[in-house]
Amino acid sequence: METIKINDRRFKISIPEAEIKNRIKTVAAQISKDMEGKNPLFLGVLNGAFIFAADLMREMTIPCEISFVKLASYQGTTSTGTIQEVIGINENLTGRTVIIVEDIVESGATMKRMIEQLGTRNPASVHICTLFFKPEKLKEELDLDYVVFRIPDDFIVGYGLDYDQGGRGLKDIYTIVED
Questions:
Q1: pLDDT tens, 112-160?
Q2: DSSP annotation of 141
């Protein structure tokens, strides 16, 4: 088993890049079909979702726009449970179809906060598209409209996701290897 080291931890490949891109293409086709005629605004959550958002946008077949918001709730390998808004939303969302593009949904706290904030801006609708979803960690009631991968409660890096800022640029998804 080939492993890599990021900071003080070892990781092994769990999802290869080709599988990630194939699944994103499938989800983009579904979103394009569902959102035909709506010109949705994709709202990517930084930093983790930037690669996913870019790849998703390149696969869309309908007119759409993208913007980004930055929220933080992680330190190391665990969520702090506190979400801090770092960069806000500048677009007028009144009457817009908004699709939140998130890297990973675990507890659902970040998405719940985003939906509450977006709701005050009168969008026509708000949808969630996540690259990864850990169903066993979900604590908030959420409707996840588009899920690329349902995964177990393992710590992962790569494809935009990091471990203390390391590993974001990896093309594959890696899972932590316990010593």
A1: 888 888 888 899 999 999 999 999 999 999 999 999 999 999 999 999 9
A2: -
| Local structure of 33: helix, strand or coil | helix
As a whole number of angstroms, the distance between CA 147 and CA 105 comes to 9
- What is the sign, positive or negative, of the torsion defined by CA atoms of 158, 163, 165, 167? negative
SS3 30: helix
pTM of the full predicted structure? 0.90
Residue 73's nearest CA partner among 109, 117, 43, 99 is 109
> pLDDT tens digits, residue range 11-20?
999 999 999 9
* Count of beta carbons in the 10 Å neighbourhood of residue 77: 11
Q: Count CA atoms within 13 Å of residue 161 on its CB side.
A: 23
Question: Which residues lie below 8 Å from residue 75, measured CB to CB, with a gap of 6+?
Answer: none
Those residues with Cβ within 8 angstroms of residue 171's Cβ, 6 or more apart along the chain or in another chain = 17, 158, 159
Tell me, rounded to whole angstroms, the distance of Cα 103 from its chain centroid.
2
R_g of the chain, CA atoms, integer Å = 16
**Tokens, residue 130:** 């996540």
